[in-house]
Amino acid sequence: MKFITLSNLEFAPWYALLIYWALSALRLKRIKVSEDPASRLWHIGIMVLAFMLLYSDRLALGPLGWRFAPQSALVWAPGILLTYVGAGLAIWARYSLGQYWSGRVTLKEDHQLIRVGPYAYVRHPIYSGLLLAMGGTALVVGEWRALVGVLLALFELSRKAAKEEALLATEFGDQYGEYRRQAGFLTPRFR
Hints:
Layout: H1 6-24, E1 31-34, H2 37-55, H3 73-97, E2 106-108, H4 125-141, H5 144-172, H6 174-182
Antiparallel strand pairs: 1-2
């Protein structure tokens, strides 16, 4: 009888991320400014499609179902490790944001510019963590559809991050400009 399978190892960090997200969403500051509902709906739709490409065999159509990586522990092990590291980074970043987090592009009441934890190095570490975890999952899946899902998420998370940056620059002005020079967008800035 097998209790630990490859899929159990691969899904565990995603479940941890979802559970932490749900619990920490219970204590958030009130929203002062929020994106429009159409923009939010667009984001959700693109991200659902990205995760469907990552996890659904039904989208393994034609070349999307072809393998780019062999089914081997030599590929799965680093993929699972990347998934854990990425999910861990996203959880750490979410913890660092505390009450200022939102799934929407928003400003909270008494909003503060967070520059601690992973935010000392990267301006959007939640997105970096999600993309790293998705990349690890794509290695485990090993099909082109999974890579297309990661690229779709990269496009959408970069678009959303740019909207967040515009809002934060309006709110924090020169302070945000200085932060942009010090911390990288999705990866650390090497000085």
